[in-house]
Amino acid sequence: MLVGDSGVGKTCLLVRFKDGAFLAGSFISTVGIDFRVSIWHCLMVSCLCPFQIWDTAGQERFRSVTHAYYRDAHALLLLYDVTNRASFDNIQAWLTEIHEYAQQDVVLMLLGNKVDSTQDRVVKREDGEKLAKEYGVPFMETSAKSGLNVDLAFTAIAKELKHRSMKLPNEPKFKLHDYVKKEVRGSGCCRS
Ligand SMILES: Nc1nc2c(ncn2[C@@H]2O[C@H](COP(=O)(O)OP(=O)(O)OP(=O)(O)O)[C@@H](O)[C@H]2O)c(=O)[nH]1
């Protein structure tokens, strides 16, 4: 499930991942909850694993709708917008909600989106890293516009969920915190 303030780029991140495209132009806010990707068969984790990816509305007025879905989520991608300080400052409030409504062992990842907007950036990478460290969550910076680290973020989550579900005693433990270090840093150029 994708969560975070309205306008941080949740829908665009999902569309970039699913269709390899960027939704440029006017911003249409998600209403309530959206099944934009119903089933994703992830081949990148060496098996056909079906995943449902849910897009949620960031607007406050839909919060009670999204709360109802938290407890069924196995993983949450929590986004802020690096060009919007308030969206970063609200991360603590989002984490409080997550602790209140989500499963205790939910897989959580913090993403700082829109890193392509270098001129407008107001949240430094170090600020994101510091906050993520404080809460013990893996962290990456992404761009739905350029595609930077988008596949990596979803694959990391898929690998973690697959590892948890298989519970193979002899398989080396998948380390999500280490995997996200594959992240490409910088604004990145557009994916073909
Ligand atoms: N430059 C840039 N703009 C982005 C990026 N991701 C999203 N946007 C823009 O940000 C605006 C909001 O994007 P959405 O994906 O609709 O935001 P959302 O988080 O789904 O918003 P809600 O549905 O209201 O919760 C749109 O105008 C997008 O074009 C990005 O990575 N870079």
State the gist of this model:
By secondary structure, this protein is α/β, with parallel strands linked by helices.
Q: How would you describe what is shown here?
A:
This is small monomeric GTPase. It comes from Gopherus evgoodei (Goodes thornscrub tortoise). One of its GO terms (biological process) is Golgi to plasma membrane protein transport. Helices cover 34% and strands 20% of the residues. The protein has helices at residues 10-19, 63-70, 85-89, 91-101, 125-135, 150-166, 176-179; strands at 2-4, 33-42, 49-56, 75-81, 107-113, 139-141. The protein is an alpha/beta fold. The model is unreliable at 188-192 (pLDDT under 50). The strands form 2 sheets. It has a 4-stranded parallel sheet, with helices on both faces. The protein has a two-stranded antiparallel sheet with strand order 2-3. The structure holds guanosine-5'-triphosphate. Guanosine-5'-triphosphate (GTP) binds at residues 6-12, 23-24, 27, 29-30, 57-59, 113-114, 116-117, 143-145.
Tags for this entry?
single chain; 192 residues; alpha/beta; 4-stranded parallel sheet; two-stranded antiparallel sheet; 6 strands; 20% strand; globular; binds guanosine-5'-triphosphate
